[in-house]
Amino acid sequence: MSSLPTPATRAGQDGLDALLARPGEALIGLDFDGTLAPIVADPELARAHPRALSALAALAPKVAAVAVVTGRPAEVAVRNGGFAHVPGLEHLVVLGHYGAERWDARSGKVTAPEPHPGVAAVRAELPGLLDGSGTWVEEKGRAVAVHTRRAADPQAAFDALREPLTDLAARHGLIVEPGRMVLELRPPGMDKGVALSGFAREIDAGSVLYAGDDLGDLPAYSAVDTLRTTGTPGLLVCSGSDEVTELRQRADVVVEGPEGVVELLAALADRIG
Description:
By secondary structure, the protein is α/β, with parallel strands linked by helices. It contains 9 helices and 12 strands.
């Protein structure tokens, strides 16, 4: 049986204690890339850690809900995660595009509003802006992500593109979400914090664990902080990365990447019994 880590903060310990004492009221929220799946140069090749599904299937029936909260389209996260038709994950929810899309394992269907028109507009202008930069564009349907990890100097490309992409996004009513060598142009008004807190209210969660690895997960961290102030205990987990330090500084528990996240999930399932 794997041992559970000791949270570094009192609030984190309270969150873990509440989860263990009343698991049937707990919401487990998880980012996908960098948290359940290792970061890879080509996002299309990202797949969940080999032991992620077994750990989730062991834990999910013992808690109120498991929600994967991701910037990816919900269907892509489901496919790359292998979440469909897995025994034990019948009530899994994937909140894709920062909550703009929702996939429920029970129905196998995605619900979503119409795409923002600004996404098509920036998509049309990106080739001229990115020519010769060595970057790669990921089409996400409701957003467009510019990856610099393949460029000759990924950080220099990221820094050089941040301002012009921010200007382009603003002209078409979008915002830029920076991440680990990626700049995503997407509609405003939705983020992982909004998605997580909304789902927590929907299921009347008694405690919340959230695990993430990137800047886009900071709003979810803030949502957990807010829930704590209103009486819902929470535990913040960082899937450790040397590329992003902000989450490490705010987390109650730091684990070493998706391997560590999977070990934590498995330990929780063992501890709850």
